Amino acid sequence: MAGGALRSDHQRNTEMRRLLALALLVPMLVACGRVIPQGSVPPPAVTVPAAPVAANAVLAGVALGPSLAALSVSDNDARGALASFIESCPRLLAREDASGLTRPDDWRGACDAARSWQPGRAKAFFAQEFTPVQVGDGKAFATGYFEPEIAGSRTRRPGFMVPVYAMPPDLVRGWPDDVPASERTGRPPLGRYDERGRFVLYHDRAAIEDGALAGKAPIIAWAADPVEFFFLQIQGSGRLITPEGEVIRIGYAGQNGREYVGIGGVMRERGLLGSGPGKYSGSMQGIMAYIRENPQEGRDLMRLNKSWIFFSELRGDGPLGALGVPVRRESSVAADPAYVPLGAPVWLDLDRAEANGLWIAQDTGGAIKGANRFDTFWGAGEDARRIAGGMSGRGRAYVLLPKAAAARLGAR
Q1: Are 172 and 406 in contact (CB under 8 A)?
Q2: Which of 317, 310, 280, 276 lies closest to 297 in space, CA to CA?
Q3: Domain spans of the chain?
Q4: Residue 375: what pLDDT?
Q5: 397 has which bridge partners?
Q6: What's domain 146-314's superfamily in CATH?
Q7: What pTM did the predictor assign?
Q8: Is the pLDDT of residue 342 over 50?
């Protein structure tokens, strides 16, 4: 998913060495107060002056966090996190860490220990293997997501008219003719070739809803409610329940490459959200209420989000996160891989008690960008819908790194 797929192995290795060198330099560049005794309150943010927006965790700055004992990890929390961490280990040992915080071999000791660790002693595992660190200022913001259950059908019939598309064959990556060869760096954009052979942007949400893919893309099933399906696309996976009781599980397969727009933010800018007469709550439920009560305005609002998600049918365990392993209720969290190694444990201490505790970073999201930005996973069902739809928590976050990686970064 990250840019640079066309770069050579030599270039990638050079960049990784540069990141590791920066990892050693950053703690010396910032004030000495960033390295603090274990158990102390973390210091305020210290901004690395090299760039106004840090490109990864190393450039954002890394400081030592409190001890695991000070975080008050519960037994149940630790057991769930341990199980999810074990599922993440094969990926942790094989993938490059875009955050610059770790190398694959850093995780080997913890993964070896986890496989034979007794679940009843899960808290001791995290205390033995990891060091909590603060990335940037550590100020966290967390939302929630879930696996929606909506009405669907294998076949098109009255009441089921919203196509659930699989990946279309004409969605490809390429360079528009007006992009000079010297600027063709990183990963080419998504798009399609039109009838004249020109590379153009792919169909946006409005065009797809108006039939641009009719007869051109495979259809997995048909949804009953376009509003429910819109929010299922935002979640990235879900379950279609047919009138006959069949459950069709679908998961993210790809995206059209067009801009994602959070319609809640648009509604807030327009003064539609808040308290008082004529206002709607900022939760998913409040946004849906506005769309249903104002059909034309609601349709136009949804079309501002030009992004369209394509699905594949899931037949095994799941739903699968960006790491390629199943995400689990109250154990899996989406994060920005530029700031959190995918597969790493994360501690959240928020003003929403239900989201506090240990999570494993196993997913990403189009709106989950930046240091200390997280999206907590709550499973399926009505309570998951309620919690995730209203989740908006602020507080602190710590990333748990293998002790050798934390020491190499200077967090000691």
Answers
A1: no
A2: 280
A3: 9-144+321-408, 146-314
A4: 96
A5: 348
A6: Barwin-like endoglucanases (2.40.240.50)
A7: 0.71
A8: yes
- Asked whether 235 and 291 are in contact (CB, 8 A), the reply is no
| Tally of CA atoms within 13 A in the half-sphere of 101 that contains its CB | 32
Q: How far is CA 218 from CA 6, 45, 196, in A?
A: 29, 49, 24
Question: Of 158, 191, 155, nearest to 172 (Cα)?
Answer: 191
DSSP 359-379: EEEEE--TT--STTEEEEEEE
Q: Report cis status (omega within 30 of 0) of the bond before 319.
A: yes
**What is the mean predicted confidence (pLDDT) over 303-332?**
92
Residue 1's Cβ-count burial label (10 Å; 0-12, 13-18, 19+) is exposed
Of 336, 376, 382, nearest to 356 by C-alpha is: 376
Closest-CA residue to 216 (of 202, 228, 206, 227):
202
Specify the CATH class of 9-144+321-408 in words.
Answer: mainly beta
pLDDT band, very low/low/confident/very high, at 315 (cuts 50, 70, 90): confident
Phi-psi region of 136 (alpha: psi -120 to 50; beta: other; left: phi over 0): left
Strands 190-193 and 199-200: antiparallel
Using alpha carbons, select from 13, 10, 189, 188 the residue that is nearest to residue 96: 13
Q: Where are the alpha helices (DSSP H) in 270-402?
A: 284-293, 295-303, 382-389
- Band (pLDDT 50/70/90 cuts) for residue 358 is very high
Report helix, strand or coil for 197.
Answer: coil
Cα–Cα distance for residue pair 169/56, rounded to 1 Å: 34
| pLDDT tens per residue, range 27-39 | 332 322 222 222 3
